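=== How it folds ===
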Amino acid sequence: GSLVIFGVIILPLSFLSDFINSKRKKLLDQQSWQASHDGLTGCINRRAGLQLLEKKIEDSKTLGQIYALLFIDVDHLSHINNSYGHAIGDKTLIKICERIKKSIRSNDDLIRMGGDEFIVSLNNIGSPDNASNVAKKILNSCNITLPFENTIVPLSVSIGIAVTSPKTNISNEK
């Protein structure tokens, strides 16, 4: 327990040690998250994403699962930035990410490759048709207009699909 002397609570040293270790772990977790995620959108960043994709492809081979990548490009982002300002462009990217995340499963990953380019990794999709269905869901969710402050911003995305199977052989060019 604790000891009270002259109205001051004296805590045992183990409490202080536990407190410091808890704060240290929280800080390390925060630094790890910041190193692997995009600061604007909260998506997995390019570096961490490429490492993740390599692992997912290997998992596809060893687990015998079908795996798909959706390559997503936000259409006309430079026009949005030039016409409405970078703050609106940033808000657009955040909204697009929110909509993509709502369109994919919790075990799928959204990676921001940079600028207006994203990759969704669809894990163990069962059938290539399922990748197409997810892409359609994302298109329906993201091809809209959004009100920002005093303007309406038209949003759209383009999507390419790549499907791998356990037999796919991918070379890693660096």
